[in-house]
Amino acid sequence: MIAGLIATALRLRWFVLVIVAVIALAGVYAFQRQPIDAYPDISAQMVQVITVYPGRAPEEVERQVTIPIEIAMRTVPKVETIRSRTIFGLSVVQLIFEEGTESYWARARVQENLAAVELPEGAAAELGPLATAYGEVYRYELASDGTHNLMELRELNDWVVIPRLLRVPGVAEVSNFGGLEKQFAVTFRPADLDRFGLTLKDVIEAIQSNNASAGGSVLPRGSMSFVIRGSGSIQSLRDIENTYVKSVSGTPIYLRDIAAVDLDHLTPSGIFSKDFHDEGVEGIVLLRKGENPSRVLEGVNAAVEELNSSILLPGVRVAPFYDRQYLVDATLHTVSHSVLLGITLVVLVLLLFLGRPAMAALVALTIPFSLLFALILMFVTDIPIGLLSVGAIDFGIIVDGAVIMAEHIARRLGEAQQRGDHRPVPRFVLSAALEIERPVFFSVLIIMVAYLPLLSLTSIEGLLFRPMALTMVFALLGSLLFALFVVPVLASIVFRHGYSEWENPLLALARPLYRRVLQGLLACRWLVLAAVICAVAAVVVKLIPRLGIEFLPYMNEGVIWVRANFPEGTSLRQSSAYGRRIREIVLEFPDVRFISVQAGRNDSGTDPSPPQPTGDHDWPPAAGTMDTIPHQAAIGGGHRPTLAR
Length: 645
What we know:
Elements: H1 2-11, H2 13-33, E1 46-52, H3 58-73, E2 79-87, E3 90-97, H4 103-114, E4 124-127, E5 136-144, H5 150-166, E6 171-178, E7 182-188, H6 190-195, H7 200-210, E8 214-221, E9 224-230, H8 237-241, E10 244-248, E11 251-254, H9 255-258, E12 259-265, E13 270-274, E14 277-287, H10 293-311, E15 316-323, H11 325-354, H12 357-364, H13 366-380, H14 395-398, H15 400-419, H16 425-451, H17 459-494, H18 505-523, H19 525-543, E16 559-563, H20 572-586, E17 592-600, E18 631-637
Helix pairs in contact: 1-16, 1-17, 2-13, 2-17, 5-10, 11-12, 12-17, 13-17, 15-16, 15-17, 16-17
């Protein structure tokens, strides 16, 4: 069958070239729309149930929130593991689903079971963002010139910056870290409560009943109609102060008569510091699972530019200090460098041994064709471009089939020219291709089969190595098609006037030496076999145990992480004070560009870290978080101000 296809390809040479051009264009199209990331996402399919229960002790949250949710989640299908963590005022239940479970299907099943859980009053449960543990792609600080306090910055982040960033396609969540959340504080005067015979319950009910609006009907009046409504929602401090509570002896008692109303803030759950600023407001952008980081970050940067140019208040700007785009660009640069270097080396080696630029170019075209062919199949199978997919392609293996096919065709054409045979070149090309097509096909097929065991891996190993194995198989398939069908077609066009072989003088000089060495090795072949076995045994016993072992390739973003655990009971403010001392020491080094410090947890609950350690921390980090410890510092050094995971 392959012989018939090769013959057909040579008859329809220009049609084959059109197909090659279409595949190349489709590969470019796939490349432009393919996600590019440094590492494959090896996180399991996870759904989080985050419940905020303010002011409650961990034991109470565990008993009233965590345990009921865990019991309800036991009937969710395809769940492999249920984990939970409970701290002061927060419960996080994490469900790990079977590999291959669709994200929205899993979230829908969890939401159905969560609706049946009866939670105590004041507890609010919601699903965590549709992100993974590798979803953190952007961090920024709300920088101020000193004219705005932490409460104003936090309000600006909650109501202006975060809503704008959430509009960027592909953003799953934007979490706030640090700042002071504004609230209205009512401070009662016990003496006045006793004087008017009021209780706290009376006052609370009065505030709640007065904070409401009512709708009426429509009042027609001639050619006009008016909507009737009663507006009672509290809008300001004055509205709270003027809240009617009770009538005593015909005298109305208002809230201002028994309490003081002021602006205040909630107790912060985390403190963010950077460089010489003790407290600030930080935003953490999480990528939705499966999205293209480059496109999302492009939209995020455009939104930040819009915020800084026209939306934010004077004296305030969004100052990013971590952008994964740098790592994505570095990955793309590495992959591009690897491809160009592979093509260059192949061309140089072919020029050295074959001596004909046309032959070298003919074989070198295998690399871009195989890559573009692999990109098409990667796009179809949702495999992102990265160091462990395209970057793992072995170009020496890719060009093997094309080298064998092209060299054999060239040799047949050279022999025909030496004999003076003037038959049409396509006939010699077809004859040579048919002689070598079986060895080429089976040699490449054996290499492809060698990668198939990697496809049987499961769990994290499968998520890590399956994309690499599939990408290599796709590229080998493209190289096989190119060697069997495209190389003969191109050879019949490029060498339409024949081909004269050229032998490298160095090879001619080395051939007698190689003959003598080979004869000597064959004469004592059993001794050679024993030496090879001893060498392999020595490598296995002595060398391999001394080699380092890494699960992932090392990627240096120029940062250092410092994690500090303090004694149990250390307050959030004290932890932040320790962080100040760490910042002062680190900033003394001239190589450090910046340092950011986090104490506590973010406000969304995706990072369930208490203000101090309460035991070991083997529980895995939540989606989009960087760790689960109470105090962490990121030091940006070297030549780039970036922040790494």
